[in-house]
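Retro notes (design track)

What went well: tokenization of the new backbones is finally stable.
What didn't: we kept losing track of which sequence belonged to which structure.
Fix going forward: every design gets posted as structure first, then sequence, in one message. First example under the new rule, 366 residues:
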């Protein structure tokens, strides 16, 4: 039996299922236009500086990329003001999560994470045979006190997704500092800040200075969300150079490619584009929030580029919005909707209004 060949835990997992393509959905539902609001991609694309940099790209396709991502490393080090040795790059943040899991986890260990939170933390822990301790969020927020109680001497990683995907909520600076003071020094706390650039809350923690205080802390960032480079697959971790050096053993030698490295460097040179996207996103979030409040819909306050709408009919709401031309992401207790362009947001709210005004109102109650 081939099943006997693979690690037992693979049998309890499913391979990542990409959603239907836009083309498939257009054909199935006979729609001309589809707006994809399912993966938190940047609806404004990326900076023009990226296309310019790629147009000048020297086409030495036969050569391997710089495995150390030297230019990107220098540029990011300057951007976040850390030692270049404090950085590790991945083919997307997804790969950095895999590298950390592969490097730290064994069947004797466990991880502590929120639920719901980003699915990859759990996936890699299960593959490594580690125990997964999921602590339910409270009103969409990390329950830090309960998470602390689940930490024991075998806890290798505590994952904090800040802001949290899919709920959009955040851990503030005071709570985070008090949490870090109480986590044992031999447990790694990983702060996944994939949506960092979108945050506007004034008490959101500035975590970079905390790295000097805690060498069991790592911060994760990505070019996939606000920088609009999801197609290039570039993300990075920031941590103690000693830890990074150890993680580097697990990293594949040429994991980030030359195009991605070039695109990411160029993206960092366009702060104006980034701020433009952040402003537009905030307007979209505000409009969505106002709509939910006006209609007494259950939702979580979001600091990211998506919003979580509570419903116990997530799959039906997903199907209905699909028929109206919107792809969103269903979860067990609600749906996550990416904030799109102004006109798309407006059309989406009209569709939701239409659902509320008609027989399908029950789809939006929780
Ligand atoms: C999107 C996302 C990632 C992965 O991003 P990539 O860099 O595209 O791999 C990681 N963590 C969270 C919370 C995300 O939402």
């Amino acid at each position: 039996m081939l099943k006997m060949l693979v690690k037992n835990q693979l049998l309890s997992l499913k391979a990542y299922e990409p959603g239907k393509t836009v083309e498939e959905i257009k054909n199935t539902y006979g729609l001309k236009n589809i707006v994809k609001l399912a993966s938190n991609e940047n609806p404004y694309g990326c900076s023009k500086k990226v296309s310019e940099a790629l147009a000048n790209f020297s086409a030495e396709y036969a050569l391997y990329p710089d495995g150390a991502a030297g230019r990107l490393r220098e540029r990011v080090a300057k951007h976040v003001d850390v030692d270049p040795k404090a950085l590790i790059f991945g083919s997307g943040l997804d790969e950095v999560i895999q590298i950390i899991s592969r490097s730290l986890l064994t069947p004797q260990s466990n991880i502590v994470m929120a639920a719901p939170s980003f699915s990859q933390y759990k996936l890699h822990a299960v593959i490594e045979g580690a125990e997964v301790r999921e602590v339910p969020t409270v009103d969409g927020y990390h329950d830090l006190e309960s998470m602390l109680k689940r930490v024991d001497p075998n806890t290798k990683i505590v994952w904090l997704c800040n802001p949290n995907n899919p709920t959009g909520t955040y851990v503030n600076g005071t709570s985070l500092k008090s949490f870090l003071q109480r986590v044992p020094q031999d447990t790694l706390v990983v702060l996944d800040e994939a949506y960092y650039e979108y945050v506007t809350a004034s008490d959101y923690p500035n975590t970079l200075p905390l790295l000097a205080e805690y060498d069991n802390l790592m911060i994760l960032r990505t070019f996939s969300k606000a920088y609009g480079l999801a197609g290039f697959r570039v993300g990075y971790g920031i941590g103690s150079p000693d830890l990074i050096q150890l993680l580097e053993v697990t990293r594949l030698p040429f994991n980030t490619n030359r195009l991605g490295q070039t695109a990411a460097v160029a993206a960092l040179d366009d702060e104006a584009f980034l701020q433009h996207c952040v402003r537009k996103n905030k307007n979209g979030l505000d409009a969505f929030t106002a709509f939910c409040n006006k209609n007494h819909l259950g939702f979580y306050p979001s600091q990211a580029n998506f919003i979580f709408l509570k419903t116990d009919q997530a799959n039906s709401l997903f199907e209905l919005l699909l028929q109206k031309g919107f792809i969103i992401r269903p979860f067990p207790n609600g749906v996550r909707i990416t904030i799109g362009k102004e006109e798309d947001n407006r059309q989406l709210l009209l569709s939701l209004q239409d659902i509320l005004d008609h027989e399908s109102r029950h789809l939006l109650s929780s």
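Added context from the reviewer: The chain has a mean pLDDT of 95.
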